[in-house]
Amino acid sequence: MAKWGIAQFFEQLWWRIYLKNKNPEAYILWKKKYWETFLKQIPEIAFPKTANSRILDAGCGPAGIFLILQNQNFIAIDPLFNYYKEKFPAYNSYYKPEDSFINSKIESFSSTDKFDLIFCLNAINHVEDIDKALTRLAELSNEKATLVISTDVHNYTFFKKIFRFFSFDVLHPYQGDSNYYEEKLKKAGFSIQRDFVKKREFFFTYIVFVCRKD
After folding, report:
1. Which fold has domain 2-42+52-213?
2. Across-strand partners of 211?
């Protein structure tokens, strides 16, 4: 999909610009605090999980929620992970244990064991094929597993159509409102337990869906 390839190119450019002048230690500290605050908004997720519980950070980026899962049994995946390691070596010390980090798209990720908790945070509108990605997350989920997924949703139908037609938001191949993502989640086999708003702006609302594998 040409649109996804273009999005990945600009995603790399965005991260180079964003991280260029940041102090790695300060940035990681800030991200850890951000993720700790984020988890407090989802009290139904109990930590620590049992030793046998498996957690997936899908579309983790260079500083995903894996930063506060170091004592858990987790896997973190991202199609640009090799790029992050090459271009931002100052952050490589945070990618431990190394075999927990995998360069992979969500759609093509495979695992012999399934997961009890999956995070897909600010990533689902970056994927190449949203239906395949959500179906794959369902296939990777244990029975009654929890999926926490967050994304920007459009506030206005008019602007959603404009963004889709003109590709103004080049980083995000998928542009949808909340109903769009709810329908995709249900189609993939997830029931939405609840949702909450993290941030509201003019064009978009950043929303979190807490889901259960049916």
Report:
1. Rossmann fold (3.40.50)
2. 147, 192
